[in-house]
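Narrative of activities, Objective 1.

The group set out to show that a structural description can be obtained from nothing but a protein's sequence at a throughput compatible with the screening campaign. Below is one input-output pair from the validation batch, recorded exactly as produced.
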Amino acid sequence: MPKTHPKIDTKLIHAGEPQPRIQVSVSLPVFQTSTFLYASTPGADDVRYGRWNNTPNHIALHEKLAAIENAEDALVSASGMATISTTLLTLLSTGDHLLAQDKLYGGTHQFFTQDLPALGIEMDFISGVDPDSWEEQLRPSTKVIYVEAMTNPTLEVADLEAVVEFARAHNLISIIDNTFPSSFNFRPLDWGFDLSLHSATKYLNGHADIIAGVVMGQGELVEEIRQKLKILGGTLNPHACFLLYRGLKTLAVRMRHQNRSALQIAQFLEGHPHIARVNYPGLTNHPQHDRAGKLFDGFSGMLSFEVRGGIEAAEKFARKAQFPINAPSLGGCETLLTRPAQTSHVGVPPQKRRELGIPDNLIRLSVGIEDPQDLIDDFEQALG
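Output recorded for this entry:
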């Protein structure tokens, strides 16, 4: 790429493209092979092997991902949870301590509360919106502070600037899950975070046809994680690399539409008598609306809302809505809805779910790229 400062739209298309083009192919081919010839004078860095995440598909994808979040390096894995678990297992050892935001994706919550303690790694939850309380949980053994850019599924926006300041003041590694905003709306490394994680299954790929994860950030940290991933083996296969590489090229186009559509839908739901609450940072009455407006270039296509009338009313709405697909996951072209108590947070005890603001009648909505008015009309009849 030219040595200028292209916008993210341009980086998504051109960053990481092989030069010269491989066999003059405009699109990067799929290197569907596990094994490569040695270089003429092979060294450890010259070996190409699929599990080592260094095939031509991996290398090009890593360069593109690093470019869009202004990272020194990036690394893909077989899933978002593979990225989260490998990253934490790289940075934490027996006797270490982790601080984590109290409102997290269910799989992350389970890994932090069950798997890490089994390895002798301790952790405490902190309120993402109450920085003054964090010092109380700090220990000499604390190594990492972990937050989500927008919490799943309550769309809380933590005091992310305070997280970075706190990490620097106490020599902690700051990690953020940036899945919900996506790289288009938020680039955490520009704000001082050490590592940015994604479930690339979601917005980065955007087509609901692969499972993948990515970590981006400081080169030395990513290299440590790369070495751990070699051993744990959660490698992304070349064809999935190709699909993610292709999906990234439309991220800006998709996210602009999804940002606008989600705001329209949130505003509609906010004014509907059958809706008790809407969680969306783009709404002016959201508790962290001003903070989100400062940090993010858009408010994402994710929102959640509570239907009046309990589980029965929520399930009735899900049945009657015609366009949304009742399915877990998010970030694709199709609008999806799900009840987190039944899917993403089913492993979290009911009392804990309620404490986290996830009642059984909460519906999480991933807005796709359909016409927003068609979706609004559909929701109107479903709520009727």
